[in-house]
Known about the structure:
It is a single chain. By secondary structure, the chain is mainly alpha-helical. Strand 1 and strand 2 (about 15) form a beta hairpin. It has one domain (about 10-85). It has helices at about 15-20, 30-60, 75-85, and strands at about 10, 15. Strands 1-2 form a two-stranded antiparallel sheet.
Amino acid sequence: MADTKGSIDQFRGYAIEELDLLNLGKTPIPVDLDRDLVVTALQALWRERNQALRSAENVAELRREAAPDPRLFGVSEVTQALKACGAAPMPF
């Protein structure tokens, strides 16, 4: 493993070029790294969807309209996926 401590081009101590993202299914990588990558991505997706929902609710409130259906934003699906990984959403 290359010494990339503090580098923006790393994930959990692994250099991005070491991960070989195009061949994730073909090359063995540590299981904990694989899980960490999925959990980090799901947490980012959860934050983005939550932010989009809050923004839409704010716009609806300013327009004095009904708030959008939260199911449209898929926050609960991402939460379920995180729970399946044994993780929880990472709030802002």
